[in-house]
Design goal:
Radius of gyration: 25 Å
CATH topology of the largest domain: MetI-like fold
CATH superfamily of the largest domain: MetI-like
Shape: globular
Number of helices: 16
Order of helices and strands: HHHHHHHHHHHHHHHH
Strand content: under 5%
Largest sheet: none
CATH class of the largest domain: Mainly Alpha
Number of strands: 0
Number of domains: 3
CATH architecture of the largest domain: Orthogonal Bundle
Helix content: over 70%
């Protein structure tokens, strides 16, 4: 290395241009991160404000932005009223039950189909896989009316069955993700198991599933988030308020008590916090599973 090149190196032996590029990249990521976290910070701050503080314009303190985000006299009355004025605990229990059934059905059905599309040789496998991918282009609004007619004729309207039973019939996106991950597992493992006399069900349960934990964690997390935030399907199929989910309960809260913004912000914060905590604890597995599902086609 020439002496003049050595003099230009800064910060852990990196060239100045590389350091500047990394600094700009991190600055851009930090700005984007602040933009994404700003709505939640505003939601959390508003949940601790009184009605007068929420609509106060402009703030009178020396640091108006700090006053806007951190109220001078925070109150927890919004949480006390917002979580008791509507049956929040019942809605939470209903949502957790539906989420648990949806995650269970998704993991079972999608992993089985993905194993059949990736490890078992049979005629028409590729054609069926491409047809399955084609269904991803159909929005839910296209099949919404036919599905409602079917569920109404079998007596499932105003029950939770339409919300979680379809998860036991597979999901095209999750099948695709799991199939791509299964293709990255060496075929020698399954071939050796077949030589030892293992059946496909034994290979699936004892070899493929333990090795596919990162991908299964991604599918479980995405399925849980979808069921937790689902609003349209509960709105269509559920009319009994004792069976409401959190999203539907909050929508009802807005229609009936929309002027109590502090209560609404408190209930929305309680609904959002579990998702953020879950993601922070599973983000490493989530990123690992996403990065490994598209390696092999």
């Amino acid at each position: 290395m020439r002496p003049d090149e050595t003099k230009r190196r800064l910060w852990f032996g990196q060239p100045p241009r590389k350091v500047l590029t990394a600094a700009c990249s991190h600055l851009a990521l930090a700005v984007l991160g602040l933009l994404f976290v700003a709505p939640f910070v505003w939601l959390l701050s508003t949940s601790f404000k009184t009605e007068d503080q929420i609509f106060q314009r402009p703030p009178t303190q020396v640091l108006p932005l700090l006053h806007y985000l951190v109220p001078p006299r925070p109150t927890v009355a919004n949480y006390e009223q917002g979580l008791t004025f509507v049956p929040f605990a019942r809605y939470l229990l209903n949502t957790l039950i539906i989420c648990a059934m949806s995650v269970t059905g998704t993991l079972l059905s999608c992993s089985l189909v993905a194993y059949g599309l990736s490890r078992i040789q049979w005629r028409g496998r590729e054609a069926l896989f491409y047809l399955l991918l084609g269904t991803m282009m159909l929005p839910y609004q296209v099949v919404m009316v036919p599905l409602f007619v079917v569920f109404a004729r079998i007596g499932w309207v105003d029950t939770w069955l339409p919300l979680w039973v379809p998860s036991f019939l597979g999901n095209a996106l999750f099948i695709f993700l799991l199939r791509q991950f299964f293709l990255t597992i060496p075929r020698e493992l399954t071939d050796a198991a077949r030589i030892d006399g293992a059946s496909d069900l034994q290979i699936y349960s004892r070899i493929m599933l333990p090795l596919a934990k990162p991908a299964l964690a991604v599918v479980a997390l995405l399925s849980f988030l979808g069921a937790w935030n689902e609003y349209l399907m509960p709105l269509i199929y559920i009319s009994d308020d004792s069976k409401y989910t959190l999203s539907l309960g909050l929508a009802q809260f807005i229609s009936q008590y929309g002027s109590y913004w502090g209560w609404l912000m408190a209930a929305s914060t309680i609904m959002t916090v579990p998702i953020m905590v879950l993601f922070f604890f599973t983000q490493r597995t989530f990123i690992q599973g996403i990065s490994l599902t598209g390696i092999k086609g």
